[in-house]
Amino acid sequence: MNLTLYFKKFFSNSQSSGIFLIFCVLISLLIANSTLAEGFQHFLDKEVGTHLFGLEYPVSIWINDGLMAIFFLLVGLEIKRELVEGELSSFKNASLPIFAAVGGMLVPAVIYSIFNTGTEYSNGWGIPMATDIAFSLAIISMLGKKIPNSIKIFLAALAIVDDLGAILVIAVFYTEQIHWSYLLLSFGVTALLFILNFLKVTKTVFYIIPGLFLWYFLHHSGIHATIAGVLLAFSIPTNASNVEISPLEKLEHRLHIPVSFLIMPIFALTNTNITFSNEMAAGATSTLGLGIICGLVLGKLLGINLFSLIAIKLKLSSLPQNSTWLQMMGVGLLAGIGFTMSIFIALLSFKDEIQIQDEAKFAILIASFIAAVAGFIILSLSSKENPELEEN
User: Fold this and answer.
1) For the segment 216-251, what is each residue's pLDDT rounded down to a tens digit?
2) Is 269 helix (H, G, I), strand (E, B) or coil?
3) What SS3 class is residue 50?
4) What is the pLDDT of residues 349-365, one digit of tens each?
5) Cα–Cα distances in Å, from 357 out to 40, 103, 304, 325?
6) Opening angle at CA 119, ends 115 and 124, nearest 5
7) pTM of the entire structure?
8) How far is CA 302 from the centre of its chain?
9) Which of 83, 193, 213, 384 has the fewest beta carbons closer than 10 A?
10) CB contact at 8 A, 275 and 284
């Protein structure tokens, strides 16, 4: 095969991005548990940028709050396109991820609290509420055409609502101070973006520039800045026509390869940087560990599917097109991949308590691994229920 064609096929294959991301996870774990660990952590902690306007941050912050805002922009574009002309264009389909996400946040928090109410770990109830959108979408992308596209869209929408919920929880319960002046400026920029949409401005540069200011204001407000990507995405114009390519679709196409093969791998390399220690093993068997593992694995599975079932029985929602309840169970498990946002909440929950933080990280890693493997297996098996999917 021609080398150019080979690389073109590789980069256009969603399974390739998932495999590459898992490879980066393994590399990161190897680095974190080798002689390179100290130097790598020093690099992540190195502050870069400029003092001007307060834009000097560690490399890790630029990745998690900066590059990941671009990832959220891409996912937001995909969700908006589906809302306008795709799987989520009907109210019943669009409402299901919201109900599912609410269940996927409440039930894990309750399970964690059952284990830890009245203990020194009680403040960590927000840890199992989060879904790591990057890793969950990477795992499901590895399944290719074995599952319907509607299930992938459902997981993406669910994960976005879940992450927005986690950001809200952080803002209300874990943020020490919200800078309201910056938050008001964020509202102003958001309003400007939607006014541009209303005025039918189609040049994406007129959205990207205010979007940069939106990121800056949100970051300084104390709110997790990645939400800027979602707000920007929903302001960019699109249409319900499959004939005319909209500004949204053009931007979505341009972002696909750099996000899949650059931003997400960098994210994986820096955020799976967990050094194992003997003390961390206690995180798997303590009430802290059990609360996190049961919350992420069982809580997400039960919460997402129970609330989805209730919404469908009340005729408020409907199952994603061509999907089955077995696939919904697989999605519920993949949503239990907590990882970065869960680790972030753990750091906020147990400030200056390094040992508890390490135990929580280890429990999150175990839960995320169980959720990823179990979800992948169930979704793989579910394709046998829909043999027509394998024929496509």
Assistant:
1) 999 999 887 888 998 999 999 998 776 668 999 999
2) helix
3) strand
4) 898 787 888 889 889 98
5) 20, 26, 27, 36
6) 70
7) 0.81
8) 19
9) 384
10) no
